[in-house]
Amino acid sequence: MSEEQLREPEPSADPVAYLGLLARGAAVEAYDRPVLLARANGAGPDALAALEHAKQLALRVRAELEGRRRREAELSALFETAHDLAGLRDLDAVLRAIVQRARSLLGTEVAYLSLNDPAAGDTYMRVTEGSVSARFQQLRLGMGEGLGGLVAQTARPYVTESYFDDERFRHTRAIDSGVRDEGLVAILGVPLMLGSQVIGVLFAADRRARVFEREQVALLGSFAAHAAVAIDTANLLAETRSALAELERANGIIRAHSGVIERASDVHDRLTELVLRGGGVHDVAAAVSEVLDGSVEFTEGPLPSECVDGHATRRGDDWVAAVAAGGEVLGALVLHGHPGLDPVDQRTLERAAMVTSLLLLARRSAGEAEQRVRGELLDDLLDAPERDRRLLKERAARLGTDFDAPHVVLAARVDRPDPPADPHAPTRDGALPPAAQREGTERDGADRQRLWSAASHLAATRHGLASARDGGTVLLLPLGPGDTAADLARQTAKHLGGTLRDPVTVGASSPVGAPAAHPGAIAPAYAEARRCLDALRLLGRSGEGAAASDLGFLGLLLADTRDITGFVTRTIGEVVAYDRSRGTDLVRTLDAYFASGMSPVRTKDALHVHVNTVAQRLERVGRLLGPDWQSPPRALEIQLALRLHSMSAAVAH
């Protein structure tokens, strides 16, 4: 007997023979032998059919077992990779293990990993496994160059069965030489992602043509995710070590200069004396400029959150100290051109900011009378627009407000979340305890007062009007060149929210022409702004600013002017323009797609085109409208826009 016959038992014509083949993990070719043996022994058609059926069942079981073994191996490798990450000490060792496991599980001859270099604007090889070419191991790929550059640029996996025959990506002499040197033919690359940012690419490659299955692409993507986590963890560890070192240096500086706090106190006394002599904000800035031997100026407006913690903060070559009182940011003192300011001078700048806040509060008291006058004028516009227009215009002119310019009415409210009630002290009917009710009422009153104060200051600087109304504040502000009502709403929400350090929601009306000519338009505009404000809060967009034009089809219902054309343009304008410029049929395809219940198969029947044509058109629509165009809210707006577009086209014809 031959060696093969000694190793493999003679197959039987009995279907049970397939159990033996499964038990010993025989090769696929062995499953043909029982059928061939039965045919050779003169078995009848029924017996051959039974054997053929048993063969197919056995092959399916074998494939399932192979799949299970493969998945167990993949899960084991992913578990080992996660274990490596948990004990991360050497980033290179972890990345090498990931690349080795990817190569082993995908059964490729080569696997490698490249990382992006933001400074150079390209990607470079970090780890290779199975590579034999020094030129290939030292390759650098520009963004968009080669398969790897394309993956890094688009953040999508790419696979090629034959690299040199694939024209989807840009071939360069350097990259092609390296790939040819390594002898690679089939290549699969998946992106390494941190959030939405691509930091590199993980590859698996063979020196022969092959097809990578979808499961293999997904597996390599899982390894890429682990690699990205490893890189991010290593970077965070490095940043943490750097931060600790910086903290140690700062502690050393504090210990070395603990005796110089007295100097800052002396400077504070000097500033206090200056104020008592009747100096102003700019006098304080001039005095600090002299003490610190630099240029100090006072600026107004909101500040980044990192600059309002009561300490001087470095921004570039400047130092910024917030000027704040009662939780409200009034502005900042900025020292220019002193990047190396020592702790003593930082404290001096902070003390000067405190003195400046006292001066501004005193000046604000004097300005509150003017704010009340501005509020009274706006109240008259809202409650009694029939008054003498000439008199209204004269009152506005005395306050520096131009009633001949277009304005926008804005409704603003503080939307700070309520603190939780004491769970141990509810009333019998479930209402808040009286003490909690009083506390909430006091807090709301304080919020309204702070909002009115900040809004009045903003109105004065913008040559507008402000008044407390309906539990919030109403503003009438001029519309700047190139601005829209939505722009003004967002700017106002950002300014007031930054000043109060609490979320402020702002709804805007459509622009009002000249208030001097149309004083009766202010009250309806305020009602529209209130509706927009209420809509923002109901939509969970507290702390934002918006006009009706920002709210899609909901804006059509809220606005006093029904800008149907603007809504259609904002929603599907790019698709309409694409059809018009290129003679395509995307709008009709979209209409048929939604009419067919978002089914590509039924859509192709309605349009009498191939289903691939429908898929290509919908892919183009996605690139024009954004990846979320099929989400329920967007789909609803798009369908409404399609109907309105169709109606407007029918009317035009």
Molecular structure report:
The protein is an alpha+beta fold. Helices cover 56% and strands 14% of the residues. The protein has helices spanning 3-7, 17-23, 33-40, 45-86, 91-106, 134-137, 146-154, 173-182, 214-256, 261-276, 281-292, 343-383, 389-398, 434-461, 485-500, 522-538, 552-558, 564-582, 586-595, 600-607, 611-625, 632-652; strands at residues 110-117, 122-129, 140-142, 158-160, 186-194, 197-206, 295-299, 313-315, 318-325, 328-336, 407-414, 465-469, 472-478, 504-508, 545-547. A hairpin with a 2-residue loop joins strand 5 and strand 6. Helix 10 runs antiparallel to helix 11 (281-292). The radius of gyration is 36 Å and the shape is extended. The termini are far apart.
Could you give the order of strands across the largest sheet?
Answer: 3-2-1-6-5-4
| Main beta-sheet strand count, sense and barrel state | 6 strands, antiparallel
Oligomer: single chain
Structural class: alpha+beta
Question: Ends: how far apart?
Answer: 90 Å
Number of helices: 22
The helix content is 55-70%
Beta content: 5-15%
Shape: extended
pLDDT below 50 for ≥5 consecutive residues: which ranges? Answer: 1-11
